Amino acid sequence: MSKLLARDLGRPDLRNHGHSGHDGRHDYTAMAEDVEGFMEDHALQNVTLIGHSMGAKTAMTVALRFPSLLQSIISVDNAPIDAALKSDFAWYVQGMRKIEEAQLTSRKAADEILQSYEEVHAYAQALV
């Protein structure tokens, strides 16, 4: 991949993930500090930081803290917001469990189950 992109690649594990050791502190600032330390230890400049999910929020945190360290970021499967699960999330999970238990073979059958869980059809479609 490095040859294809004509760039050096580094892929550190975030704390408490992969081969990294356990650390009691587990927040985006701490993970951003870890990434910043990796970049400093390897004298990286003009970095394109790619992160997936939690790694994406970590990349965004690095970008907010030290934008001059980065050329760009690629945030995959995440949004730059802090959003808690809505209180109705458990209700949707219950609906999904009913679908799984029913071992359905059609989307129509799943839609019928979800009608009692979500009135807005677009939301129900996203759940299936």
Q: What layout of secondary structure does this protein have?
A:
Layout: H1 2-5, H2 28-41, E1 47-52, H3 54-65, E2 70-76, H4 89-102, H5 107-114, H6 121-127
Parallel strand pairs: 1-2
Helix pairs in contact: 2-3, 4-5
Structure, described:
- This protein has 128 residues and is mainly α.
- It is 46% helix and 10% strand.
- The protein contains 6 helices and 2 strands.
- Helix 2 (28-41) crosses helix 3 and helix 4 packs antiparallel against helix 5.
- The two termini are 35 Å apart.
- The mean pLDDT is 81.
Spans of at least 5 consecutive residues whose pLDDT stays below 50 are none
Largest sheet: 2 strands, parallel
Q: What fraction strand?
A: 5-15%
User: How are helices and strands ordered from N to C?
Assistant: HHEHEHHH
The strand line-up of the biggest sheet is 1-2
Cα-based radius of gyration, to the nearest Å: 20 Å
The mean pLDDT is: 81
User: Helical segment tally?
Assistant: 6
Short description:
This protein has 128 residues and is mostly helical. It has helices at residues 2-5, 28-41, 54-65, 89-102, 107-114, 121-127, and strands at residues 47-52, 70-76.
Short key terms for the protein model shown above:
128 residues, mainly alpha, two-stranded parallel sheet, 6 helices, 10% strand
